[in-house]
Design a protein that fits this description.
With 239 residues, the chain is α+β, with helices and mostly antiparallel strands. Helices cover 36% and strands 28% of the residues.
């Protein structure tokens, strides 16, 4: 019986390992007087070395503390795929170092994000060309409470037909949730009056007075957060 119980524990774990829900992102910052050269070199590098399961989607950061930088996303893949990928090879690294990184500043960051389907109102690969990302940092030990709040927020997003993809970071610095608002109809979705106010939709979905509790929860459970707008650059991305 003990062996059978252990087998049942292993089966869902093994199956979960095959799910392609992990996205790796890097942020790079070109020298202001070398942006043209950087874009040309990055495009050539992506076309040659980052295809198939490892293709790149490149985003230009328009606002927020990282404005002027570029975000490169790779995936989605499974953890097993990432584990088995191995060394990208000397040729790849030489091309990056000699032809791309020479146009970059020393500023750089990278992280893994796991797509949270239960918290999202859009499928993982149902992309948009313009997005806003809100970075939410829970207070220590408050991740479950923030996740519960996001489940409630999802009802309000759905009521307004907002396409929001939610990710949680994994082994990438302080724990955070990334709320990616995918603007299928463009930035006009940010216009006041485009859809009913979030507060009204939230209370309709979760009950009168619930919005006040939601705002109290933000103060109680989250440490801080910030937002940014990004534009997709298909001309720089893998084909």
């Amino acid at each position: 019986m003990r062996k059978l119980f252990a087998l049942w524990l292993f089966i869902p774990f093994a199956g979960f390992g095959q799910v392609k829900n992990v996205v790796r992102s890097e942020r790079v910052f070109p020298k202001m007087d070398k942006i043209g050269e950087f874009e040309k070199a990055l495009t050539a590098h992506a076309q040659k070395y980052h295809t198939g399961d490892w293709k790149w989607r490149v985003w230009q950061i328009q606002s927020g503390p990282d404005a002027g930088g570029f975000m490169i996303t790779e995936g989605p893949n499974s953890w097993e795929q990432i584990d088995k990928r191995g060394d990208l090879g000397t040729e790849h690294m030489e091309d990056w170092n000699k032809n791309v990184s020479v146009y970059l500043t020393d500023r750089f960051s990278a992280q893994y994000g796991v797509f949270e389907e239960e918290l999202s109102t859009v499928q993982l690969t149902d992309y948009a060309d313009k997005i806003a990302i809100t970075h939410v940092f829970p207070k220590p030990g408050m991740g479950d409470q923030v996740e519960n709040q996001l489940k409630m927020a999802k009802k309000a997003w759905a009521a307004g037909n907002q396409t929001v993809a939610v990710y949680s970071t994994s082994a990438s610095g302080p724990v955070q949730y990334l709320l990616v608002y995918r603007y299928k109809q463009g930035l006009k979705e940010r216009e006041k009056g485009f859809r009913a106010p979030f507060k009204d939709r939230y209370e309709t979905a979760n009950g009168k007075g619930s919005y006040g509790e939601f705002m109290e929860g933000i103060s109680k459970y989250t440490d801080h957060g910030w937002s940014e707008i990004l534009f997709f650059r298909p001309d720089l991305s893998s084909k």
